[in-house]
Specification:
about 300 residues, mainly beta, Porin
Length: about 300
């Protein structure tokens, strides 16, 4: 009976969050501007991208906390570093540290940055005016906890963007829940991401790319499956799906689908190797307009 009540409660929470997001669509239709800090939409860990980012209801150490801050599974201190070669001259670097304070709760710290090579500057006539640089960073920390059936987490982060001599800063928060259903291995998850006030850049105030994610996951140790519905404040709803097979010798094969934008391919793939305390993962996105991207994540458990 308690399991059924928890299942219905989690469904109600998902529907309530989704309904609230409908109000965001109304605000956007009424004339709210485009969003800023778009780098927050870029997938981070190779484990997640290889699964099509359909990880709101799944856990894998601290790999999925950028999608749901309650998606934590730690038994010891864990450090994860990711290098992403996005498009020509653009890379994303990420370092995350998870520290458990017992079996039920702990904290996660993360620093991410999108870096670009120096870009040529020209006037309207095409004359060379030198070069400029641009980058964007996010740094923050959060807490997570769990009960027998529930996991929950919150995460706060500061944001910094710089383009040439202009800069902007802000603050955002993430919050998430996971519910372990009475069906063994099946979980439900919901998360609200990038919540915060509009950020002003060169006298223009724009909203953060606030998002809600809701998903269902299944993990029996050999097979991991995730299906998510995602809604950004400036985009219609899109779906993600992914699966992972754990084979002999710590080998993991991943495939995913995520029709988020025209800049990336809908289909992704990944592979992982686990050697005792080390986990090396790679994800490949063929790309569409901007070319392929490659992600490598090294995790020390």
């Amino acid at each position: 009976m308690c399991g059924q009540k928890g299942l219905w409660l989690s469904i109600v929470i998902v529907l309530a969050v989704w309904a609230e997001w409908g109000r965001m669509d109304e605000a956007r239709a009424a004339g709210v501007g485009t969003t800023t800090a778009s780098f927050l939409k870029v997938g981070i860990a190779a484990q997640a991208v290889g699964l099509g980012e359909a990880v709101t209801a799944l856990t894998d150490g601290i790999s999925f906390t950028g999608y749901n801050p309650s998606a934590v599974d730690l038994r010891s201190v864990q450090l994860a570093a990711t290098h992403t070669a996005l498009y020509e001259g653009v890379s994303l670097e990420d370092i995350a540290l998870g520290i458990p304070f017992g079996k039920r709760w702990g904290m996660v710290m993360r620093v991410s940055g999108v870096l670009m090579n120096r870009t040529a500057r020209t006037d309207v006539a095409g004359n060379d005016l030198g070069t400029y640089t641009s980058n964007a960073f996010s740094a923050g920390a959060g807490l997570y906890g769990s009960t027998e059936k529930w996991s929950f987490g919150i995460f706060g982060k500061s944001l910094q963007q710089k383009i040439d001599g202009y800069s902007a800063s802000g603050f955002a928060a993430d919050a998430g829940l996971q519910y372990r259903t009475p069906i063994r291995g099946m979980t439900l998850g919901v998360a609200c991401l990038h919540l915060g006030k509009p950020v002003t850049f060169v006298q223009q105030a724009d909203d953060l790319p606030r998002a809600v994610r809701a998903g269902i996951g299944y993990d029996n140790g050999f097979l991991k499956i995730g299906v998510d519905g995602v809604r950004y404040v400036d985009q219609p709803v899109f779906l993600c799906a992914g699966l992972e097979l754990s084979l002999f010798g710590g080998l993991r094969l991943r495939a995913g689908y995520s029709d988020q934008s025209d800049l990336s391919s809908a289909f992704k793939a990944g592979i992982g190797f686990r050697f005792s305390a080390l986990d090396l993962s790679y994800a490949y996105d063929p790309g569409v307009e901007m070319g392929a991207s490659h992600r490598v994540t090294l995790t020390v458990r």
